[in-house]
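Dock heme C; give full complex structure.
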Amino acid sequence: MRNFDMPRRALAAVLLGGSLAAPQSWAAAPPEAASCAACHGAEGMGNAAAGYPRLAGLPAQYLAAQLRYFADGTRSNAIMAGMAKPLSAAQIDALAAYYAKLKPSGTPAPMPTGEAASEGERLALRGDWSKGIPACIRCHGPGAVGVGAAFPPLTGQSAAYIEAQIKAWKDGSRRGDPLGLMHTVALRMSDAQTQDVAQWLAAQPLQPGKTAAAKP
Ligand code: HEC
Ligand code: HEC
């Protein structure tokens, strides 16, 4: 079936500041990706200042699940609900497969200094067992580069985005995480811990192509 939504979406991309001039990497892009690029960038690396996350190199299964969550309200976000609702299941799968194949690129945020930085590092690498918070790398892999299909990389995401997600799990506006794992972790984190770990994670190198193997 032909998708009559396309012209409107392409126009929206232009209005939102994107460009119709397709760079090389769009060669194999599904047509809908033109509208996504306005916010997530032609390379899928998002826009840190605006809070638009990296999509490049995230697991396809994870990306597809998030698009379905935005569409059905499991993950509540007005912008992404509007983007995801018109997509068919096949379009969601095509977009997810496309972004999963893009190589992440760019420079991480500068490493924070002082006590906040060491607190952030401690939480990411060792957790805080006095509060029952496991180390982030236990699930997100060494260097937080992601593990298998279910644990997304945290590298290449901005501190503001990471912080916003922890808050969203706390207040229930983001759901759908397998077994409520992130909801449980988020509830135990203080605002200061959230901020510290988000800044430390945003400063980690991308390590393109590296994803830890899922444990059996
Ligand atoms: C107008 C800006 C905008 C456009 C256009 C847009 N997005 Fe988003 N996207 C966002 C924002 C903002 C978020 C973060 C939402 C949140 O905080 O939960 C997001 C989040 C996402 C996520 C979740 C990423 C993660 O790491 O969990 C996916 C997947 C996604 N977008 C895919 C798309 C796709 C595919 C398109 C095109 C069909 C698209 N987006 C178009 C702004 C946009
Ligand atoms: C017990 C396993 C586990 C631990 C420990 C864990 N996470 Fe997660 N995390 C997950 C899973 C699973 C997801 C994917 C959620 C989904 O599919 O909706 C996730 C997703 C995320 C996301 C969303 C990424 C995105 O692209 O939107 C952020 C941010 C995050 N975790 C931060 C952290 C931080 C910070 C820590 C350490 C304090 C941490 N996680 C520890 C399992 C875990």
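Observed: The longest helix spans residues 60-72.
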